[in-house]
């Protein structure tokens, strides 16, 4: 709450609040597990936004399967030409809210029909559950598994003196190949010597969607490097003008996140 220097005779405000014991959302990890709406199988509460961040083992993809589903159905509001979900679930491909949705068409799922089974491209997925202030139902129960290998990403050999390369899905050569839409991939490299160790990544070839005019940020597809356990940003790249670029990471841990078309080499020191 902030006020200006001008004085007015105003009464101000009063806000009441209540904390809840039936919390929801949070960080979820492991090879499999169950996610349920608050109070399931009893009616879920009003006015909730629950966010589960699911992280599976590196190199595995997450598959989400709903086994029970009963939410408020879509409603057409006055003046609107289409019905919209009021209470809904929303699945995201990756660890960030800004990542691509996994459900096609409306992206949201509501009502009593079981949502289709969806899988992430890598080892991260977000599930969002949102409710309004009107009707409530039984809610949902869902299971996630990591039985299938990821479409991209994985663990890189971090032994001192080792080297190797990895590519985006569909890469054939610097002049051929295509990666698919809505990918979110992570590669992780952990140096076997935690002290006095480093790694150099070299982008040999790269052709991905570039920046918008007059922008210094990668607005769409991007390749990002992070160093250390704190995930310190080491650089973000896009477009096709970075071939030959080297990224030096002085930390023993490296994380590479991307939605790109590239071939990379790395050398561990």
From TrEMBL:
It comes from the Eukaryota. CDD domains: CUB (cd00041). Residues 24-147, 152-258 form the CUB domain. It holds the Pfam family CUB. InterPro entries: CUB_dom, Sperma_CUB_dom_sf. Keywords: Disulfide bond, Repeat. Gene3D superfamilies: Spermadhesin, CUB domain. This is Cubilin. It comes from Daphnia magna.
